[in-house]
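re: ur question from yesterday

yeah so i grabbed the chain u mentioned. its 521 aa long if i counted rite. heres the sequnce exactly as i have it in my notes:
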Amino acid sequence: MVNDARVEAEICVVGAGPAGLAVTRVLASHRRDVLLIDSGGERPDEASQVLGVGRLAGLGYFPLHESRRRGLGGSSNHWDIPIGDGQVGARLHPLGAEDFSVRDWIPLSGWPIDPAAADPFYRQAARLCGIAPVDTSRLVAADRQAALPLDPGAVETIVFQIGAANRWRPECVLSDVPADRLRILTHVTATEIVPADSGTAVTGVRVVTADGQKFTIGAAVVVLAAGGIENARLLLLSGRDRRGLGNDRDQVGRCFMEHPWLVAGLVSAPSGGLIDRAGLYQVHRTRHGWAEARLVLPEPVRRAERLLGCGVRLRRLGRDDPLCLPAQCLPAQCLPALCLPALCLPAQAAASEPDQDEIFAVEVMAEQAPNPASRITLDPVLRDRYGQPATCLDWRVTGQDLATIATTLRLIGAEFAARQLGTLHVRLDLDSPPAGLRGGRHHMGTTRMASDRARGVVDADGRVHGLANLYVTGSSVFPTGGFANPTLTIIALALRLGAHLAASRRADGDGAANQAAARTA
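ran it thru and got these structure tokens back, copy pasting raw so excuse formatting
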């Protein structure tokens, strides 16, 4: 590639993870001319990963360059749940109807799309992921493993299906699209979205190759699918002033959400009881594929208690499993972490002695309330190797987030006691995030979807407010995140955006004008 050259495309998609691959599949299948770029290569490599270096200003978190994967397949290369035959996968589950709704106890909640409008795209996403497009109740009923005998009005069992990571390679997702409508460029990093002189559209993307060669992609439509951190960073890096593109209301980068994850305690149960009933809650094979169940509070209970979502996993501790808890059971070490006196016995002894209680680790993965103070910005000092400002992440967890976890565990523990299934041993300090709390590498909310540009960055179609031809897809557009892993919703939204763009005349009718503007910008 000659330095300062130009490449023309009808549609440029930035990012070749599941979101970018899904939207590209739809567009190329409808014979749109698509150029898909990614800063990584065929497989994850260290040189590409260090482009994601950043600084942490809030809660402790993963090093940013390790919290997502660049390259073809994106963060599907990060999935790590063993599912047999050497394969790994990720947990997949849709958001519920309540997750799309306004919940008056959750600030900034409510999606600007009807959950019914997402249903056909969830079904398409399930097919692409190789999982069954069926609801949770039918999955539980069809499973060979039995759900715990709990009052369904107090505690529900839901099933996460597990989809294989190897389905998210271009040769799989894009195998049946017209080859003449698709180009893929690897080791090409987007550094700026180029605005048109009018300020109401964009004309393309400035990029740099791994060896430092710079060129511009002129495009009628640009789609950002680079992840919950890089989507916002790229908008902040772009534009003619320091605010960035789509950021006239200072919304880009705000409301960063994760799924707070914590080993919160344990369940102890009499030998021979719970252990024989808990197979559904471990990773197991079903006639639909691989699955794993969670315990959740039903929606009416969450509404009555004014809670966010929270899923609880029971992880059976085997003879050699460590408990992996944040502190030993000494008072000076327990605060502000967990104080779990029942954990003073080693897990190995508890699991191996027939007269001892059976032990399950209790893991929670919870929803966060949108919080504008939890955000990403551009670091004033740190730069990547191309001289671009790196990301600064200020992740924050609120008292509402922590109260949801504590109340969920209290109510589930009460139901376990009422059914004589076992005893939940948990105590949380709600004044601060407990030691051991971390995220799931699920970056959400930084370019959130809202009908009002004062509350978000993109509209219901994923179009950046105020810009006619710049779109964003992926978990960064989530107004709220629910408690389920985001991958299935990411793919469904990308398919929905692809269908919208394929049906739109914008790529055809405005393409010549936008590309002419790009040539003169």
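noticed a couple things. Confidence is low (pLDDT under 50) at residues 324-355, 506-521. also The CA atoms of residues 101 and 110 lie 5 Å apart.
anyway ttyl
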